[in-house]
Amino acid sequence: MLEVGDTAPDFTIPIAGGEVYNDISSFTLSEALGDGPIVLAFIPAAFTSGCTTEMCTFRDSMHRFEGLDAQVYGVSVDLPPALNIFIQQEELNFPMLSDWNHEVIHDYGVVLPEMYGLYEAAKRSIFVLDSDGTVTYRWVEGEGETDFGAAIDAVYDAVAETVAS
């Protein structure tokens, strides 16, 4: 698993921007670096209650990240068209990245091996990267309930600290 201070692995995967069929393109992490901090919020699966709550908490907090020129991306193993519907349904104001081939969750060390005992997904986790691609903050869900508001506050603080340095 990546630790604070590690260089985040580069990747190119589909990005869903909200339109069902015509808003899927390619996203390369290294091309997005340099424009401010990047937040990668990994979720196990779109449309599930915890993931929806987390992504909606990010949605409702986006004004804080925009003020710091931070880019926020949800990351899931769901297919891009499903993520587009998820974005529309939940009125998300940030794109979702589709790691449908599961390479990124392996590279970042956040594999949930048996979601519902059926398939591999992402562990709920958040990484903040500085403009050079260095991990400045890492959070991976542990046991018990997650306080998404507190997690977003910690991510915001990490982004603000990254911008200040």
UniProtKB/TrEMBL annotation:
GO terms for molecular function: oxidoreductase activity. The keyword Transcription does not apply. Pfam families: AhpC-TSA. The keyword DNA-binding does not apply. The active site is at 51 (cysteine sulfenic acid (-soh) intermediate). Residues 2-161 form the Thioredoxin domain. SUPFAM superfamilies: Thioredoxin-like. This is Redoxin domain-containing protein. Keywords: Oxidoreductase, Redox-active center.
